[in-house]
Amino acid sequence: MQLGPHTLTPYRPEMPILTLAPMAGVGNWVFRLICARLGARMVGVEFINCRTIAERSRRAERLLDFCDAQIYDQTGISLLAAQIYGNDLDLIAEGAREFERRGAQVVDINFGCSVPQILRKGCGAAYLRDLDRLYRAVRQTVEAVSVPVTVKTRIGWDADQINILEVVRRVEDAGAVAIGIHARTVVQKYQGRADWDWIARAREASSIPVLGNGDVFCYADALRMQAHTGCQAVMVGRAAMGNPWIFAGRLGASLRERVELAVEQVRLMGQYKGERTGVLETRKHLSLYFKGLPRTSELRLRILRAETLAELAEVLEGRAESQAEEEEADLSLSAAEAAALGWGSTG
Questions:
Q1: Within this chain, do residues 107 and 201 fall inside the same structural domain, yes or no?
Q2: What is the mean pLDDT of residues 16-43?
């Protein structure tokens, strides 16, 4: 798959190209790097408001920490796609320039977020009700940067207003090099089933690559989506939160692998946000990595109550040493688990 000067290839020849979707509160450089090392061919930054970029705040600097970009640039293991949203076209273009300056290899514009407060401000999926404005946002951003511009969107506002084929035409005309499509409407949010048929129709109508998204709970789902739609890549969101091994085409991981990854993730998060905050923010992943443990088990409670890296490492490593090496655990999400994680996505 070609994105401007960049060629994306599968992690292994028999696999689809898998990418990490932008996810609010999840897509920091630590998690991006973990997914890239495991096989994600492009990793999405958690979406950033165009008005936040000019702020001189600790939060803005953390969101704009693209320190992993240098690794991808030097090794070629992945591409960094920084996602922006907002209702001011000039600020979106200016923000895109700042993303490029900080090392983003791709700029992605969010036209898919269905969060009510985002929609009320004319951001995210609100653009689906004004495609002339959507076109101008893409065109102005394309003209502002030298890196490829992509978009992420939904199939339409509701079942009676599905306009994804027109959206594809507009973003192509505006100069976008690819489009990611979450196969639900705005009104659906994360409820009901994703309609992959619309991804297939968009793929047939599109001259640019289409990245399919929605209801990919495990690697087998990614295979089914590509076979069903013909999309050039599959964008994985919530499923990656509990199973980053999905990018290697795996069902999950052994206990030892999960322990080692958990310790490494918390260590890196400690560098990123400080030890206590790093441990706290990694718990959402740990609860999924070790979801096979009973909710009332002492071990699970100790994992989720640990406040320091040393404490967490002691608990996890003690667990690994007390157990024989197990087979690969199934970390696939159920539909109910995925619905509960809907807060972690942006489109």
A1: yes
A2: 96
